[in-house]
Amino acid sequence: MNQDNQAQIMSLPSDKTDMQDKRIDTLFTRLGAIYGYMWWSSLQSEHALITTKKEWSSGLQRFDTRTIKEALLIFRERHQFPPTLPQFIECCKAISQTNIFRKSTEEFDKQAFLEAAELNIKAMLDILRG
User: Fold this and answer.
1) pLDDT in tens, 29-88
2) How far is Cα 100 from Cα 77, in angstroms, rounded to an integer?
3) What is the mean pLDDT of the chain?
4) Where is pLDDT greater, at 34 or 8?
5) What gap in Å lies between CA 74 and CA 56, rounded to an integer?
6) Are the C-beta atoms of 52 and 18 separated by less than 8 Å?
7) How large is the angle between the packed helices 3-10 and 46-60, nearest 10 degrees?
8) Where are the domains of the chain?
């Protein structure tokens, strides 16, 4: 598939015109830019590209855009070969778990800070009341 055909197929109207499809279009374009022929060689026909994009869209719909971007960066920095969908999903799951842990830690830290502040304020009020 030459570059002109790739560009035409990438811009084909899809069944859905929602954000999910735009995310997959962008993801495929970036994977193509990162991995070049290794990525595009498996997508030799319009049918293969459309089918693959639908499957990736379905597999990645549970992840937010930030998670997908982080996974893409991990593959760009650490992997010489393009990911399969299961590899990309596993990376997204790991990122999601890290983000959940980070959020719960931040919430715990915030709660601990508020409790400490409340105790200190009570102690200061006790001192002022004498």
Assistant:
1) 999 999 999 999 989 899 999 999 999 999 999 999 999 999 999 999 999 999 999 999
2) 23
3) 82
4) 34
5) 18
6) no
7) 50
8) 3-129
- What is the DSSP annotation of the chain? --HHHHHHHHTSPPS--SHHHHHHHHHHHHHHHHHTHHHHTT--SHHHHHHHHHHHHHHHTTS-HHHHHHHHHHHHHH-SSPPPHHHHHHHHHHHHHHHHHHHHHHHHHHHHHHHHHHHHHHHHHHHHH-
Report the distance separating Cα 126 and Cα 119, nearest Å. 11
Q: At what angle do helices 19-35 and 65-78 cross, to 10 degrees?
A: 10
Q: Which two tokens stand for residue 123?
A: 């102690």
Q: Look at the block and give the residue holding tokens 């830019």.
A: 33
